[in-house]
Amino acid sequence: MAKVSLQHIYKKFGNNVIAVNDFHLEIEDREFLVLVGPSGCGKSTTLRMIAGLEEISEGDLYIGDRRVNDVAPKDRDIAMVFQSYALYPHMNVYENMAFGLKLRKFSKAEIDKRIQEAARILDISHLLDRKPKALSGGQRQRVALGRAIVREPQVFLMDEPLSNLDAKLRVQMRTEILKLHQRLNTTIIYVTHDQTEAMTMGDRIVVMKDGLIQQVATPTDIYNYPVNQFVASFIGSPAMNFIKGRITEKEGRLVFDAPHIHVSFPEDKAKLLKERGYVNKEVTFGIRPEDIYSDNQFIEANPFDSSIEAVIDVVENMGSELYVYFTNVGETQMVARVDAREGFKPRMSVKLGMDLSKCHVFDSETELAVF
Amino acid sequence: MNDWKYEVDKIRQATNLPISYLCGTVEQIRAESLRLEEEGWEIVAQASSSGQCSIVMIPSTAWEGVPRALLSLMFSEKLQAASDQSQLANWLHEIALGAPTPPPAGLAKQLHWQEPRVPFLLEQCREGFSWHSLAPILPDFFKGASLSQFPLPFPYLLLAVPLSALGSKLDEETGLEWASGLHDLFSTECMENVRVIVGEPVGQPPQLGDALTRALTLSSALRKFRPKTMVASVRQFPLERWVMMLGPETTESLQKAIEEMIPLPQLNAEQVETLETFFARHLNVSETARQLFLHRNTLLYRLDKLTEQTGLDPRQFTEAVLLQLLLLFRQK
C-alpha cells in the first residue's frame, strides 16, 4: 500500500505532440482513483508512465517515498491488469497465478496460501485446474486479476480491464472489483473511457481531455459541480442539455434569453451572474435531463418562469423511466428523464418545467462554469 | 546455453554429486569462478554471448573416474553445439541488419534439429530494457524446453521453440494464442511492452533465415501502419506487408494511379482511426464498434459519412480494398 505522487508530469512525442500536459496529482494510500476521458485524452499514457511502460518526458513520479522515474518497471512494486487477458495458454489457472511467485522464489506453501486466498476472494476456487481455453471471458479476467493480487503489490494499475466483457458481465465485474478494493485495502488506479464505470467505482475521478486534467473530484462533485462544459457533457447519461443564449435583466429579474426559451434565475444564481459581470453577455445554459420535470404540480409550484413548450420527437422507454427527446427549443435537441407512467408518445405537445436551482451556466468563450 | 541449467539440475539429481551452473555478466562470473576455484572447484564448460557468460563448475575431488570422463564428453559435445549456435546467431544477426547472406556452409549438418521449431520474433517497444532479464523467465515459461534465443540488433530477439513444447500441432489460431501468452508474460512479469510475431514452424536452422525475414517485414509494417498491434502471425496483414515491401518509385506510381481513379479527400484523425480499426477487424461492424468504444449506430453513421465524402463504401469488400490501399500509401 502506498500513495502515488505525480508532480508536473509531461509526456511528449517528438517536438509537437504533448500527450500528457502538466499532470499534477497526489493519489492517497488506499484510494480508488479513476482516470476517465475520451479516446486520445492521455489517460492510458498517464497510467503507462506510472507503470514504467512509457518514459516520463518531464516531472517526478513517486510511489510511496521513492522517486521511481528511473526505476525499472518490474522493480516498482506495482501490478497491472490490462484490457486483454490472454493468460498463459499451457498452464492451468493455479499455474497461471503461481508462475510469477515461482520466478520470485516464493516457497510452495506461501504460493499455495496466496493463491487459495486470491481464488476465494475472486470466487474461482473451483476453476483452479482449468486451462484458459475452458474459461469464459469473465473468468479469464478474474484470473488476470488473481495473478495481480497474489503479488501483493503496493499499487494496482488497471487499464480498461472490463472493456472486452459484455455489458452484463461488465456490471457484475464492476461490483467485484469494488469488493476487491474493500478487501485488499490497497491503492488502485483505474483507466476507463466509460463514465458510468468512473462514477460507480472511483473515490475520486480525474476527467482528462487533450492531455490535460479538466477536473479532479468525487463522483458527486463532478456530477453536480462540473468546472467546465466538457466535464458537464462527458459525465452523465443522457448528457446535460446545452442551450446558447444571453443573460438579460427584465423587471428586476435576471433572465436566460434564447429563441423559444426565457427563464428567470433564482435569486442566488442571479446574484452570482451579476457579481461576475454576465448581464447582457452570451452564455451557455445547461440543465441535466433529470432536472426537467413533466408533472404539473412542479410546474405550478415553481415560483419562477421555468417552463418550456415541447413537441416530442422520440421517446426511449427504459422501463422505470422515459428519455424524452424534443427539438423545438431553437435548433437544439434536448432530452428529459421523466417517470415511465407519464405515457408520453412521439409528436405529443407537452409542457415541461426546469428546476432552475439545479441549472448551470458556462462562459461561451472559455466554456468554464459560472455555476 | 540456457538448457545447461536444466542439464546441470538433471545431472545433480541423477549422480547426487555437487555441480554448479552460473550465469551472468563476464565480470560477475569471473569473480564467482575465482572464489570457487580457491575452494577447489574447476570449470567444466564455459561459453559467452552478447556480454553474458555461462559456466559449469565441479569440485575436482568429488568427480573422479568414469563419472568425470562422462561429464567431460557430455560437455565437449555441448561446447561444439554452442559454437554452431553462435555461427547461426551471427548469420541471423547479419540478416536482421539487412544484409541477406546464404546460411553458413554445413550448418544443417552441424546443427540438426530433431523436430521443427516455431520462430517468435520479439520486439522491444522501449529502450533500456535488456533481453538478458528474460533469460530465466523463458525456459521456466516453456517448462524447460530446449529454446534457442538469438539476440539481434535493437529492438529484436528471435526465439525458436521446439514444436512439441507448444503442443502436437500448430495452426494459426494456436500460434497466436502462444504469441498472446508471451506478450502477456512480458507485460505481467516484466512490465514490458513487447510485440510478438509468430512464424510458421521451420524444419532446420537454414530455414530460420527466411522465417526471420518474413517476421521482420511484418514488424516494420506493423510499426508503420498498426503501431498498436502487439501480437500477430506472419500470415496476417498481407496488404500492409505488400505495401511495405514496395520500393518508393512503385509506391508513388501506384498511389498516383489509384488517386487519379478515385480522388480521396484528406481524412481527419477520427476517420482514419475508424477505417483502420474497421479494416483490422475484417469489416465487422460490431467488433469495430466494441474496439472503438462506440455504439454500433455511431459507427454506422461514421461509415455513411465516409461513403458520402469519398464515394467509396468501406462495407463493400472491393471498395474497402481500394480505401485501405490509399490509406496505406498515404501513411507510407
Order of helices and strands of chain B: HEHEEHHEHEEHEHEHHHHHH
Task: Note the run of SSEs of chain A as H and E.
Answer: EEEHEEEHHHEHEHEEHHEEEHEEHEEEEE
Largest sheet of chain A: 6 strands, mixed
- Name the shape of chain A in a single word: elongated
Query: Whole-number average pLDDT of chain A?
Result: 91
Main sheet of chain B, how many strands, which sense, barrel?
5 strands, mixed
Shape of chain B: elongated
Secondary structure: helix percent of chain A: 25-40%
Rg calc of chain A: 25 Å
Biggest interface, residues from each chain:
A-B, 31 and 30 residues
Structure classification of chain B: alpha+beta
How many helices of chain B? The count is 13
Write the CATH architecture name of the largest domain in chain A.
3-Layer(aba) Sandwich
Helix amount of chain B, in percent?
40-55%
Number of helices of chain A: 10
Instruction: Describe the strand arrangement of the main beta sheet of chain B, using strand numbers.
Output: 5-6-4-7-8
Annotation keywords:
heterodimer, A: alpha+beta, 20 strands, B: 332 residues, 3-stranded antiparallel sheet, 13 helices, elongated
Structure write-up:
The complex is a heterodimer of chains A (371) and B (332). With 371 residues, chain A is of the alpha+beta class. In chain A, 27% of the residues lie in helices and 34% in strands. Chain A folds into two domains: 4-234, Rossmann fold; 241-363, no CATH class. Chain A has ten helices and 20 strands. Chain A has a six-stranded mixed sheet, sandwiched between helices. Chain A has a five-stranded antiparallel sheet with strand order 13-12-11-14-20. Chain A is elongated, with a radius of gyration of 25 Å. Chain A starts with a strand and ends in an 8-residue tail after the last strand. The mean pLDDT of chain A is 91. With 332 residues, chain B is of the alpha+beta class. Chain B contains 13 helices and eight strands. A five-stranded mixed sheet of chain B has the order 5-6-4-7-8, sandwiched between helices. The longest helix of chain B is centred in the N-terminal third of the chain and has 32 residues, at 65-96. The model of chain B has no long low-confidence stretch (mean pLDDT 86). The interface between A and B is medium-sized, with 31 and 30 residues.
